Amino acid sequence: MSVNQGVAAGGLAVLVMASGLTPVAAAEFDRGRALYENHCRVCHEDWAHTGEGRRVNSLEGLRARVSSWSVHSGLQWDTEEIEDVTRYLNRRFYQLTP
Ligand code: HEC
Questions:
Q1: Domain extents for the chain?
Q2: What is the CB-side half-sphere exposure of residue 46 using CA atoms within 13 A?
Q3: Contact, 5 vs 13, CB < 8 A?
Q4: Would you say the CB of residue 41 lies under 6 angstroms from ligand 1?
Q5: Nearest Cα residue to atom 6 of ligand 1
Q6: 10-residue averages of pLDDT along the chain (98 residues)
């Protein structure tokens, strides 16, 4: 990250706090992560998404897994929640492209 980007991001954060608004990107990141940490991390984190046992190899596959886990866990997440968690996991572990 360049110095300019760092300054711009810092400025944005201050602006957001001052205005009380949350930018969409930040809200999505936080929600996907919070949902995962609250409901899914009891069973697994890194080991399920990295290394030998990992089976997901496409973004569609990841989304399908997140969706079925939300059903298994009795959460019945809507499309947006599934998308948020899929993006969070993809950003953090998989780096898959559509
Ligand atoms: C009851 C325990 C449990 C809970 C709760 C749980 N998981 Fe899992 N999960 C597992 C186990 C065990 C595996 C590895 C075996 C498998 O793939 O079925 C796994 C695998 C996965 C995988 C596939 C990883 C890969 O690359 O193969 C994804 C994605 C996943 N879980 C997402 C979630 C999400 C999202 C939630 C929350 C809604 C969740 N899980 C909740 C036990 C759990």
A1: 22-94
A2: 1
A3: no
A4: no
A5: 40
A6: 51 50 57 95 93 93 98 96 96 93
